[in-house]
Each structure stands twice: as C-alpha cells, then as structure tokens.
Specification:
Chain A: GO terms for molecular function: sigma factor antagonist activity. Chain A: Pfam families: FecR, FecR_C. The complex is a heterodimer of chains A (about 300) and B (about 170). Chain A is about 30% helix and about 35% strand. Chain A is α+β, with helices and mostly antiparallel strands and about 300 residues long. In chain A, strands 2, 3, 4, 5, 6, 7, 8, 9, 10, 11, 12, 13 and 14 form a 13-stranded mixed beta sheet that branches. The mean pLDDT of chain A is about 85. In chain B, α4 packs across α7. Classes of the chains: A alpha+beta (about 300), B mainly alpha (about 170). β1 of chain A pairs antiparallel with β1 of chain B.
C-alpha cells in the first residue's frame, strides 16, 4: 500500500488492486462511515453580503483616517513656505552686500576686499558685494569718491549717469544731481557715458553737466583736491560750487539775485568756512552774510 | 486568467468577485482552526481590507494567496482553539425507511466523530474539514496553508487514521 493511502482513497486515486485490498481490511467499514457522514457536515452560516459590507465600512473608516493626517500636510506646506522664504531672503541679503555712507562734512576711507582704497567725500554712498568680489569688482556710487584700485580684474564703478571701468589705477568719480565728473590720476580709465565709451588717460577729466559733456582742464594734482581738504573747480557753474560748499561745511546756503550759472574757477578750504566763503565770493563778486548755520549770498549791487 | 491580469483589484467589480470566491473559504478555514466564529469574521475583514489597501500592488491572480496569507498570519500563536461545532445536513427524504435503532446508532456515530474531530491537531482538522465540507482539492489546501501537496496528503492520511482509531476506540 502506498504512502498516505487514506488520503488517496478519499480522493479516489487508489488503483483497483489497492482498493480491493483496502476494502478487505477490518478498519475499512469505519473509514467508509467517516467518509459518508463527514460529507454531510456543515460549517457555520456565513453571509457573504454582510461580510462584504463590513469590509467596505472598515475601508471607508480607514480612508477617513487618512484624511485626518492632513494637519501634518498643512504643517509641511507651512514649513515649505517658510524655508523658501528663508532661502530667498538669505540670497537676497547676500546680493545686497556692504554699504558705506557719509553725512555732510564727513569723509570716510574704505578698504575693499582686494585692498583697493576708496575715499568717500561728504554726502556720498558706495555699495559693493564682498562675497563675490573675486569674480566681480563692482562698486555702486552715489556722490563723490576717489578710487585707488589695486591691479587685477576689471574694476567697475556704476553710477546712474555712467559706468567707469579700469584695471588698476587712481581716479575720482563724482556724481551729483545733474553733475557727473570723472578724473583719472594714474593709468587709463574707460567711461561709459550715454552708451559711448570714452578713454581717459592719466591727468584728464570728463565733466558732464545736465547730461551734456563740458570742456574741462586737466587737473594738475596727484589726487583730487578734496582729499587734501580743499575743493577745486575749473569753469564750473556756481550752483555746483555752492552745493559742494554746503556738503563740505554742512552749512545751509541761500542765494538772492545771484547768477548761479556764472562759471567759477578756484579753490576753497574744506576746513575753514569763513575762508572758504571769501574764496567763493571775492572772485564771483558777490557778498555773503554768515550767521551760525546759514549763509546768504547776495549780489553786490543790491542794497 | 491571463485576461484578468489587465484588471485591477482596486476596481470595485474585480474586488467583489475575489471576495465572493474566497471569503467563505477564509471564514471556514479560521473557524476550523480555532472554533471561533467572531475571530473568523474578523479574519475575513482584516484580510480583505489589507487586500484593498494593497490593491495596486497585488495582481488579481495573486489576490487569493495574498488573502490566505494575511488570514493565516493574523492569529499566529495568538488565540487558543475552542471547540469546533458543526452541524449535519438533514437527509429528510432518506430517513423514512430507517429504523429508530439505526437513527440512534447514526446520532451516536456523529457524536463520536465530533469528539474525534475536536481532538485532532488543528492542522489535521483544518485540512480534513476544508476537503470534506468545502470540497477543496489538496492542491488548494496546500496553497492556503503554504505547504506542499504531499504534506497535505500526509495530514489527511493521519487525520483519517486517528479519527478511525478514536471512533473505534483503539
């Protein structure tokens, strides 16, 4: 008899001979009975429909559970927004860079990351980015400053009126209202003014008033006069001279019947206000009244 | 069966078909094991909710064995077997000719069989009843239990042997 013959018998897999032999055994009767009776066994009642409903109910129950996870998703959204803001402001602040400002009657010396020097005249502001200074030497200027540029890559001074770029030299840039002046003291300076490039060799200047180029004389000093506490002018309209006086001495200037367009050539002191006033008034043939923090210029022939 | 592969278990109709084909077997299987109807109902629920959750990952062809495996693992060594209670279908038409003695003897035999069944090891009882009541082939029981057909035949053989021994009082 083969292995597990009882299982085979139940499955009708016994051979004729095996079956005949099995039937002869005394246990066969009981086996046969078991087979017959167990055929009529029944399992407990099982309602498929109800069970399926139960599964579906539980399914929807669990699906709502998933919805309850939403607060965390909201938190994630907020966290993502915040991190975007932080990153954006980090990069924005990075691009802002350093800023140096001078008030009236104030000078400042700034050393840039590559040891280039900038001397800032009164009421001026420069800003630059020291983070990527190596790749881009760029200074934004509003006002007047004298640059001593260390040799290296192109160095650019950007103003609203024009762009000045050099490789390594000393030059002065002044940009005031309607007034733009670049003076080169050493090397070669290239000025981009109104889309045109002008090259200034050492000892030359470029002056533009109200956006128009003006003929000017070459400076005869090594550094701009203001660096030595004097302000020098050559054929510059009086209004810009008085503006400069205001800035250097922090004294309010008022004029009466004075021709502000007459040209002024001369130098005034940035230290002694009384002396400076005389330096301005005598060659221009105007008078002045100096009271505390205020000065009034008036024509000689007015009473 | 090959065409079925293109269907998705996530689809309500496919899921329903699988449920109708398989749920009663799962219920009976767990009941034969532990004799606890409540646990058997829970097992059906658990197995099919799991199937739904994983419907995208389980192909319709694999769904059946997935459900069996979940049900099988659910009560692993967790609950104690209770008494399995089974009913007998009435042979209403046949009984007319039978003598009261025979009926008495028949009832006695059923009692003996019941007792013997409950004293079987759980895996033998489950195999025996799945075959006798649910008409499951040995191959399908093997799939359900995760063992070979040979092992099921062995269990069946041993189940019959010990049932007979207990009934005949050997």
């Amino acid at each position: 008899m083969q292995d597990n013959y009882l299982a085979k018998w139940l499955n009708n897999e016994l051979t004729e001979a095996e079956l005949a032999e099995f039937k002869k055994s005394e246990a066969y009767a009981t086996y046969h009975r078991i087979r017959e009776v167990s055929e009529r066994l029944e399992a407990p009642h099982f309602d498929r429909e109800q069970a399926l409903m139960a599964v579906k109910n539980k399914r929807t129950l669990q699906e709502t559970k998933v919805v309850q996870l939403n607060p965390f998703k909201k938190f994630l959204k907020v966290a993502a927004a915040i991190s975007v803001l932080i990153t954006a402001s980090y990069f924005y602040l990075n691009t802002l860079g350093e800023k140096v400002t001078t008030q009236y009657a104030e000078h400042k010396e700034v050393v840039l990351p590559d040891n280039s020097e900038v001397i800032l005249n009164a009421d001026s502001q420069i800003s630059y980015n020291s983070k990527n200074w190596e790749s881009q030497r760029n200074v934004e200027l509003d006002g007047e400053a004298f640059f001593k540029v260390a040799k290296g890559k192109r160095f650019t001074v950007t103003t609203d009126a024009g762009t000045v770029s050099v490789l390594g030299t000393q030059f002065n840039v002044e940009h005031r209202k309607d007034f733009f002046e670049v003076t080169c003291f050493e090397g070669l300076v290239s000025v981009l003014f109104k889309g045109q490039e002008k090259r200034l060799p050492a000892g030359t200047s470029l002056v533009a008033i109200k956006g128009a180029l003006v003929d000017t004389h070459s400076p005869n000093t090594e550094v701009p006069s203001w660096v030595n506490s004097e302000s020098s002018f050559k054929s510059i309209p009086l209004r810009y001279v008085l503006d400069e006086f205001e800035r250097q001495h922090n004294i309010k200037v008022v004029t009466e019947n004075v021709d502000l367009d007459q040209l002024y050539t001369g130098t005034f002191s940035n230290m002694d206000a009384e002396l400076a006033l005389q330096s301005i008034s005598v060659p221009s043939r105007i008078k002045f009244k100096f009271e505390g923090n205020k000065v009034l210029f008036y024509a000689e022939n007015t009473p | 069966m090959e065409t079925k592969n293109h269907d998705n278990v996530c689809e309500e109709s496919v899921f329903g078909t699988i449920f109708n084909d398989t749920s009663k077997t799962v219920f009976n299987y767990i009941y034969y094991k532990f004799g606890n109807e409540e646990k058997a109902h829970d097992a059906v629920q658990e197995a099919f909710v799991k199937l739904w959750e994983n419907c995208a990952k389980v192909s319709p062809a694999k769904a059946k064995s997935f459900v069996y495996t979940v049900a099988n693992n659910l009560y692993l060594n967790v609950i104690k077997a209770e008494k399995v209670r089974l009913k007998y279908a009435d042979k209403t038409l046949k009984t007319t000719n039978e003598s009261p003695e025979y009926l008495m003897e028949e009832a006695e035999f059923k009692q003996k069989l019941d007792r013997a069944l409950n004293r079987l090891p759980e895996n033998q009882r489950t195999t025996f009843l799945l075959n006798r009541i649910d008409g499951k082939k040995y191959a399908e029981i093997a799939e359900l239990e995760g063992v070979s057909v040979k092992a099921i035949e062995k269990r069946m053989h041993l189940a019959l042997k010990s049932l007979r021994e207990k009934i005949d009082g050997i």
